[in-house]
Amino acid sequence: MKLRNPPVNALSLELLTELVISLEKLENDKTFRGVILTSGACPAGGCIIALSCDCRVLADNPKYRIGLNETLLGIIAPFWLKDTYVNTIGHRASEQALQLGSLFPPAEALQVGLVDQVVPEDQVQSTARSEMARWLAVPDHARQLTKNMMRKATADRLLRQRDADTQNFVSFVCRDSIQKSLQAYMEKLRQRKG
Amino acid sequence: MKLRNPPVNALSLELLTELVISLEKLENDKTFRGVILTSGACPAGGCIIALSCDCRVLADNPKYRIGLNETLLGIIAPFWLKDTYVNTIGHRASEQALQLGSLFPPAEALQVGLVDQVVPEDQVQSTARSEMARWLAVPDHARQLTKNMMRKATADRLLRQRDADTQNFVSFVCRDSIQKSLQAYMEKLRQRKG
Amino acid sequence: MKLRNPPVNALSLELLTELVISLEKLENDKTFRGVILTSGACPAGGCIIALSCDCRVLADNPKYRIGLNETLLGIIAPFWLKDTYVNTIGHRASEQALQLGSLFPPAEALQVGLVDQVVPEDQVQSTARSEMARWLAVPDHARQLTKNMMRKATADRLLRQRDADTQNFVSFVCRDSIQKSLQAYMEKLRQRKG
After folding, report:
1. Helix/strand/coil for A102
2. Coil, helix or strand for A105?
3. Positive or negative, the Cα torsion across C29, C31, C34, C36?
């Protein structure tokens, strides 16, 4: 399964809907066994998807960045994303990266533990495939129960507080000050490109 | 106290009984102060004992491996062992190592933080002794209360759920599919040696 | 704001009172935005203040040490300090450092993650200032809410158990055996200097 929305693969509503439908199909496919890889530039939404994978491979392209830059937009990463960040790179690195809205270039992403491998761009696919083979070589049932044991607490907390979190986010993001902050960030991005 | 059951020091019922008796004797010996070291090849059970020590010294022998390879046998590390793994090497490293059933060679075990020192095989004993001296130089009472503060939450959780966990494990491991999976693994080990 | 109490900047009652008053003034100053830096030798109390900062810069002076050496004095770091240590350097490093009462020289402090930067002594001020500028460039509101999200659980636990913890500490530290242990440590320090 590949996500394509050139030129920047933005997570439009269409792309997200397509992703959800594809994931639901995969869940119903009993031969599917849950290992997903990712590569490319992943700020915010892209990073969320990457964090939910078993393993992350990033192309060694100096233009790529991965991380959660919510604060730079004047907004706040939700608690369940923070939990997943802490699970992946630890408490102190998360505290610093979330406050500063850090987007890590490949070498730094590898060092902080946000990705597992950094390889030349033309080897991303093959590395992903051989990595996937390594995970799928483990007896399925045991691997899946183990994954569940590792991620259940975080996922349960998200499910338990999902409605409150959604309402919070909607009311927060609709405030005038936040809308202005988002607009200012978009403007900055536009100027950088122009 | 040394554990010896040549050639592989397998944790037979006899050896475990001997270990428990020795530990109970040590607990009653008021001069004993709780620092244990370990070395050698430690998959699964050996790794559990190592994780419960204050400090781990591993011989730099390319044949040695340490880690929790339960998934490769088709079984699942219990929650209390997972908790201890996370306390020792962190959440992300545990997630990956537990799912893949990784057994780490000495250099990798050191890098991931599963052992504290890797030394030439003939220096394991002396390193262990000088390391032990370093721990025992700290005022006992303060050191033990501090250790308790660090490990109590994990130990309490184990005690609270011990019976349920034991029943779970017994019923899980008695299933036909799991017995077949264990047999297949044993067969693979036998072929590798043969 | 600078803390000065030459020659060793000991946290006397006077200095602590001055610090608390200054922090209260800063809290009432709406332009203040919560980033504090630190440098210099920081055993125990100095390390506590450093841990509560957003970022830590240490001078590369071989005489400087940072860490929590409570066990060496025969006393125990309180749970809220342990929590903050674990948040900063992880569980295993905290377990070892708290039990051994480790005071880290600059290079080791950097490696374990207890400080974020080690720079020549004459660059501490300028590094601190440029680091502070980096944090304050992030939209305030979002950064502060994010910081709150990261530290609230630990702070709440401290507040909830503050009275019990204070009583515990006072009764513990007034014991004859602990007073003797503290005296012995002071004596050792005096001899080293004499």
Report:
1. coil
2. coil
3. negative
pLDDT in tens, C11-70: 677 777 777 777 777 666 554 444 555 556 677 778 888 898 899 999 999 888 999 999
* Minimum Cα–Cα distance from B83: chain C residue: C91
Side chain identity, residue C150? M
DSSP B175: S
Q: Residues of B at the A interface (Cβ-Cβ below 8 Å)?
A: 70-77, 79, 82, 90-92, 94-96, 98-101, 177, 181
What predicted TM-score, i.e. pTM, was given to this entire model?
0.88
Domains of chain C: 13-193 (3.90.226.10)
pLDDT digits (tens, 9 = 90+) for B164-190: 999 988 888 889 988 988 888 888 888
Provide CB contacts within 8 A for A88, sequence distance 6+: A51, A113, A114, B91, B92
> Residue C55 in contact with residue C119, Cβ under 8 Å?
no
User: Who contacts C185 (Cβ-Cβ below 8 Å, separation ≥6)?
Assistant: C72, C73, C74
Give the CA angle between residues C95, C97, C101 to the nearest 5°.
Answer: 120
Predicted complex ipTM: 0.86
